[in-house]
Amino acid sequence: MALAAGADLLGLVSEMPSGPGVISLDKIEDIVASLPADSKTVLLTSKRHHLDILKQHNQIKTWGIQLVDKLPETELMKVKKSLPDTRLIQVIHVRDASSISEALYYEALVDIILLDSGSPGAKIKTLGGTGKTHDWKISQEICTRNSLPVLLAGGLSPDNIQAARTVVNPSGFDLCSGVRIDGNLDQRKLHKFMGLARGE
Fold it and tell me: What is the pTM of this model?
């Protein structure tokens, strides 16, 4: 449904400490195998050790990997070296102005930056899927100063997508809960969002 609506990337959520949408690696493997070969699938992982990430990727072989937590640089470089043809998407949980320098730090380490809401330092980590927006002025500053493509996430819906584009002007958008009803993807909301995202 998402691909038919025009989504460029399809995120598949593996094991997380919290949040919605988690599916098993076996199910992710089945989904990836069932899609056209040119589909750009992305594994969302909370793993922080390169061997754990490589084990996941070797099973499902997605186009990209979205790192929702912060890996030690040595671990990140091992992932990058082992998977040179796999796009790495680093999530930055925008909390305050320190997120700007954090995003700039990753410019030489990953392929895409994704700005989301979350609390990675909480007792039970929240690594996305909050349905909440963050300070878009900080996100706008990151988009202006970063040389990488920057995707905006966090509480996006058909109701605020136009404002998000005006304020932040990111390379693209990432969403989950904003186009769902009772946890299920809603075709009407999805198509409305996609149309607005394309400026229609």
Answer: 0.90
Does residue 138 lie in a domain region? Answer: yes
Q: Is residue 4 part of a domain?
A: no
DSSP letter assigned to residue 64:
E
Structure tokens at 92: 């930055």
In tens, the pLDDT along 148-175 reads 999 999 888 899 999 999 999 999 999 8
Q: What is the mean pLDDT of residues 78-99?
A: 94
The burial of 1, by beta-carbon neighbours within 10 Å (0-12 exposed, 13-18 middle, 19 or more buried), is given as exposed
Q: Could you tell me which residue, 4 or 134, shows the higher pLDDT? A: 4
pLDDT at 22: 85
Q: Is residue 5 part of a domain?
A: no
**In a domain? residue 169:** yes
How buried is residue 3: exposed, middle or buried, by Cβ count under 10 Å (0-12/13-18/19+)? middle
Report pLDDT for 15: 85
Instruction: Quote the strand ranges of 28-67, DSSP E.
Output: 41-45, 64-67
CATH number for the domain spanning 188: value is 3.20.20.70
Q: Are 70 and 118 in contact (CB under 8 A)?
A: no
Q: What is the spatial distance between Cα 17 and Cα 37, in angstroms, rounded to a whole number?
A: 31
Q: Please list, in sequence order, all residues whose beta carbon lies within 8 angstroms of the beta carbon of residue 29, skipping any fewer than 6 positions away.
A: 59, 60
Structural domain boundaries, residue 109: 10-197
Asked whether the predicted pLDDT for residue 132 surpasses 80, the reply is: no
Res 20 pLDDT > 80: no
